[in-house]
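Notes from the 1:1 (GR / supervisor)

We went over the backlog. Supervisor wanted to see one worked example end to end before approving the batch request, so GR pasted a single chain during the call. The sequence is below; no edits were made to it. Supervisor asked that the structure be written out right there so they could see what the output format looks like.
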Amino acid sequence: MKKLTISALFLLFLAFPLVAGAVPLGTGDLNVTHTSPIQDGYYLDYDGQVSSSDFGYSIGLSEVFCVSGENGNDGTYDFYKLDGSTSTPLNDGNLAKAAWIADNWTTYGTSDVIKGEAQKAVWAIMGVMNIMDGTGTDFDIYTAANDHAGYTTNKWYLAYSPSGGSGTNYQDFLTPVPEPGTLLLLGLGLIGIVGVGRKKLFKK
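Structure output shown during the call:
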């Protein structure tokens, strides 16, 4: 009996990393707004802002994509990479296709209407709901995305709720990762501000 208990505990220990394998980058505060276009009572254009995080990530108001069907809420989210280096709490195969849409929707146009068509395709891919027209841009995007199950990207994070196991689950989103060039410009700008400040300080 003792050997059986030890064996069971050993197997549980081996299985635990598989269950807890989705390790987030860190947490951040995400605020989301939604605007028209609207279809079947659902807003189709989401914009988000990450004001702060514990891993150095922030974005101004930017295009984001809703990837789940819960009620929306601003709050603290767990953030995950989508480059294949870690698993996520959502279906990674479907999320890969949604990430492809996030990377490629502007090839169909850049208007809010096209963004809405892409959002409908994301919801259909993720199994949230299907309010696509059956033909048209939303269906074209959906069809193209279905060929990208193994797609990886370093341009988007998954913002997953809840953070810290609060027990309340809200909508999850794809949020953009700032371009390295943007971060470089921001860094150079800050260095310039510091340099000007030091120059004025030493002139006194």
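Supervisor's comment: Confidence is low (pLDDT under 50) at residues 2-20, 182-190, 192-198.
Batch request approved.
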